[in-house]
């Protein structure tokens, strides 16, 4: 058994092993799971941390009935920010890591391909209508947008810290573009469960953040 600093990290490790054991008998499952958790625990991360992984996995479980392949979505959640440097190709490199690791674990090629596809979807969070696996993963990843005001403020600050290397105006413009795209889409969330529970609060939070990022000109 691998040792971790926190008991809840140990619980995540056990959950990883239980998930992999459904699809693989490779003896390397523990090694790869520990390496994944180490990646999520890198010190430069502020929001995209093990706590975020835990939250996304919990939300996937919450919406699992919507997914056509809940285990593919769970595996994609494990990998969706496995590589995180705050640059545009993070999702692509995360998908490539998923392909490499899961192939090493001898998972079925179709499952490996679906996991990698789902990880790549999180670059834009814009699944095709009817893509139930993609809708489930993207909604789980974006659930933080509907958090209570104090938690949302902490999330905003953590994301800003992760992009501290960017000039402030560059970050502000990029962040505003992402948020406005979410508001301009058909809905922030795509699953019925998430739309019912989270859509209204997410829109309130996003509009408030946009107002702070791009305040209207004084009259």
Characterise the protein shown here.
It contains 10 helices and no strands. With 219 residues, it is an all-alpha fold. It has 2 domains: 1-141, Hypothetical protein af1432 (Orthogonal Bundle); 144-219, no CATH class. α3 (50-62) packs across α7 and α9 packs antiparallel against α10 (192-213). The longest helix has 22 residues, at 192-213. It is globular and about 65 Å long. The N and C termini lie far apart (64 Å). The model has no long low-confidence stretch (mean pLDDT 95).
Question: What keyword list fits this structure?
Answer:
Hypothetical protein af1432, 64% helix, mainly alpha, 0% strand, 219 residues
Task: Please write out the topology.
Elements: H1 7-21, H2 29-40, H3 50-62, H4 70-79, H5 90-104, H6 109-121, H7 132-141, H8 149-162, H9 168-184, H10 192-213
Helix pairs in contact: 1-2, 3-4, 3-7, 4-6, 4-7, 5-6, 9-10
* Overall number of structural domains: 2
Strand proportion, as a percent range, falls in under 5%
Rg, Å, rounded:
18 Å
| Count of individual beta strands | 0
Task: Please identify the structural class as seen in this structure.
Answer: mainly alpha
What would the CATH topology of the largest domain be? Hypothetical protein af1432
Helix content: 55-70%
Give start-end ranges of low-pLDDT stretches: none
Mean pLDDT: 95
CATH architecture of the largest domain: Orthogonal Bundle
Please, what is the CATH homologous superfamily of the largest domain?
Hypothetical protein af1432
What is the C-level CATH assignment of the largest domain?
Answer: Mainly Alpha
- Largest β-sheet summary: none
Shape label: globular
């Amino acid at each position: 058994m691998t040792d971790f600093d926190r008991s809840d990290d140990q619980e995540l490790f056990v959950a990883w092993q239980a998930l992999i054991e459904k699809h693989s008998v490779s003896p390397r499952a523990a090694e790869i799971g520990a390496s994944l958790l180490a990646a999520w625990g890198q010190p430069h991360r502020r929001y995209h941390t093990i706590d975020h992984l835990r939250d996304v996995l919990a939300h996937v479980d919450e919406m699992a009935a919507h997914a056509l392949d809940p285990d593919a979505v769970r595996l994609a959640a494990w990998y969706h920010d496995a590589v995180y440097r705050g640059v545009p190709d993070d999702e692509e490199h995360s998908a490539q890591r998923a392909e490499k690791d899961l192939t090493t674990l001898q998972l079925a090629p179709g499952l490996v391909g679906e996991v990698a596809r789902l990880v790549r979807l999180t670059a834009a969070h814009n699944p095709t209508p009817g893509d139930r696996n993609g809708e489930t993963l993207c909604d789980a990843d974006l659930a933080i947008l509907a958090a209570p005001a104090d938690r949302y403020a902490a999330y905003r600050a953590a994301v800003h810290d992760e992009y501290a290397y960017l000039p402030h105006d560059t970050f502000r413009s990029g962040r505003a573009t992402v948020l406005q795209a979410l508001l301009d889409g058909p809905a922030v969330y795509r699953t019925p469960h998430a739309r019912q529970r989270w859509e209204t609060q997410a829109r309130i939070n996003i509009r408030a953040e946009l107002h702070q990022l791009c305040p209207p000109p004084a009259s």
